[in-house]
Amino acid sequence: MGDPRMAAMLESQKPVEEPGEDGEPSGATDEKKPTRPAVKQGDVWVYEGSVRDLISFKAVRGAQMLFVSIRNENDFNTTTNSRGLYRVSLPGDAQGYRLMIDHPDYLADYFVDAPNRPFRSMTQGSRLQLRSAKPAHEPWIGAGAEPMRRDVYLFPDITD
Known about the structure:
Blueprint: H1 4-12, E1 44-53, E2 64-69, E3 75-79, E4 85-91, E5 97-102, E6 106-112, H2 124-129, E7 148-149, E8 152-156
Parallel strand pairs: 1-7, 1-8
Antiparallel strand pairs: 1-4, 2-3, 2-5, 6-8
């Protein structure tokens, strides 16, 4: 991870633990969070999908994807191919991974495709309005041996 931009993104996206009454990190957990799957030694999670431009839907080739373990900060990376596709195998980690993406033509924030985010059915104007959004990034947590599909959308780094 020699790229200073990736190092800065990694540092800025570390989770912040809320202090307890004594000012020290509380270590308390939010009981409303869903239970995470049990992870066994040797589990491997495979993610595959595409990285696309959120405005044009064109494939983004050469996007550097950095997956950082929330538990121990080990990192794993991959780069999208000429068709904007990626596939990565990660050791199972009960706390999951944070994803950071770097590409010179795109902003660092990204959107992960999900059923409640139907980007392809939105107008281009609606997608352009997402530029001011600060997307929340949930940890990537695997759920077994089968590859999980995750499509990622990047916002072009355009000047107004």
